[in-house]
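User: Okay, second chain of the day. Same drill as before: sequence in, structure tokens out.
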Amino acid sequence: MSGDVKKVPVGCGHNCGGACLLIAHVEDGVIKRITTDESLPDSIEGPQLRACLKGRSYRQRIYHPDRLKFPVKRIGERGAGQFERVGWDEALDAIAQKMLDIKEKHGPTAIMNISHSATNCHAYYNAACLNRLLNMFGGQTTLESYVSNDGAVFAAFHTYGTVFTANEREDLLNSKMIIMWGWNPADSIWSTNSSYHVALARERGTRVVAVDPRLTNSAAVLASRWIPIRPATDAAMLIAMAYVLISENLYDHAFLDKYSLGFDKFRDYVTGAEDGVPKTPRWAEEITGVPAGRIAELAVEYATTKPAALVAGYGPCRVEHGEQFSRAAATLAAMTGNVGVAGGDAGIQIFGYPIMTKVMQFPGGYCPDNVSVHFNNWADAIIKGRAGGYPSDIKMVYSVAGNTANQLGNVRKADRALKTLDFMVVHEQFMTATARYADYILPVTTQFERNDVFTPWLLGHYIVSSNQAIKPYGECRNDIDICAQLANHLGIEKYNETSEQEWLEYLTGNAGISDRDKFKERGFLKYELERSHVAFRDQIEDIENNPFATPSGKIEIFSQSIADLQKPDVPPIPKYIPPKPATEASEFDLCLVTGHGKKSSNSMFYNLPWLRDVEAQAVWINSGDAEKRGISNGDMVKVTSAVGATTLPALVTERIVPGTVNIDQGIEFEMDSDGVDVKGCSNAVCPDGHTSTAITPYNSTRVCIKKP
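Assistant: Same drill. Structure tokens below.
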């Protein structure tokens, strides 16, 4: 009957690591309201899967006046954002013909796939469906690496032999102390209910300390103490804490003897036996700006409070030599016996309980002719091609569920690269910074307009049933349907002969869903565990039968596999390696960090009025640094680095350490006639390129700030 309101569970899973539950209130085919999980939790299900303000604002995103409703083709200069409406058949015909021409003239690897996963669905939407199409087409140039956390991934594999290194969030309730090191879950989420569990632990008496260049919202609300630290110096402080544990005999000898390899070599470095420089708190104070007494105090408290969780964020490893931070954090966790025990932490967080293994990925296929480049070199590879040492000459770019031009370093180079292309196709919901360069933009659905399934990519023993709440908006289509239709135009057979329902049943076939109707009605299924998941508990309880996945079967503080790499800048034990001396230190005298704020998930959501009202884009600058430059709160300033510049308002504050500024990542660039971004895009000043361990060192960027 008209006027009846139907409540439909829909998943919200983005690159914040969460998988939350939204409830769409639908009346006459229109979403009138969005709420979140209001189920009554029981002992099995635990806390509700409640969404943050981004998820709750989704109605504004679905019905935003700028949302793309039909296919369009470029009619102006590439990058100018000038398009006209076309029909689906016309668009697919033109795209297919161009792809066939490029393949015939230049080979399939002349097509670069720059897709991402804007929505963390684990069925068959987003980048996986395009990957399958291009593999069946004969090959592609792909992007490799993990922009967010390559330092942590490198450290995890070489220290523990796996990326499944994180505990359940609810295990924080077993901790007597939590150190949030470069971790801001109140804004960046880092799995559903992260900040909830930290807050609950604190209410129960757990001491919470934050180590961060900024007094983040997490530090302000959840921690009892904020320890400000200079960016890119975190490894030095961790190593000085290790010195305190060694000099005061506070480390767990028995644990290290039984479960680790190479502590003696690390000890020689820390004490100065290796190089004659003891890594004392006084040594670290000069580097980090943290008083020696505070370093020693934190070290003693961490070592003597059992169990304790050193929860390390990704920001401190997104710097030059960032893998050393993650390696040092893992070593400190081992020195205190906090690895593999309830209430502890392994010092590196990547994935937790591998529930994702229960939900299979859409088969993307494999093509032996594929080649790849590092994510942060994508624009350089387009410009230079084979002559510049890259594996292919790129003539076409195809993008699904991503905003690569905006989200990786050096947007001026991205602009230059995309303007050299013969052809470009984008699947999108909005005219993003990347989509502006396309020849054809194909409009796609949100999760409210299709059926799907979500799992958290970090932690959580549950899956979410995301149910279609409304018909597709305008002429929008699902990514897989678009790729299937394009496959027909390309002459590719058997791209997809399976219905949506059959795919979802196949993909969740190992997920233990006994009642699919109830799963869809409730919107989630939680798994009852005998005890909270703790990474490496099996190894610690019985290492003889459950060795670590490293070559030695132990926690490798000394890594022979790193030594075998023969990289002079990557030592086989954790060390602090100073950054390269600035060639123009007098000009670029401030260090930039690029936080993940509450107002966006990467480049998504900030176009919504509610999110803009919550937090405006600004550059954080310490009041002392601002005074020296004649900058007052709210002044428009120009932030410049070696690769570019951006303008935005200044936020003068004591909530950031001197010598450091912060620009939240995610804001879409818009350049003036001089090539200066005018929107406050952090990647207008962050460089492209990467370290020898594939890290994108955005938080090592040096900048200067002046009034325009």
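The first helix runs from residue 53 to 56.

User: Thanks, on to the next one.
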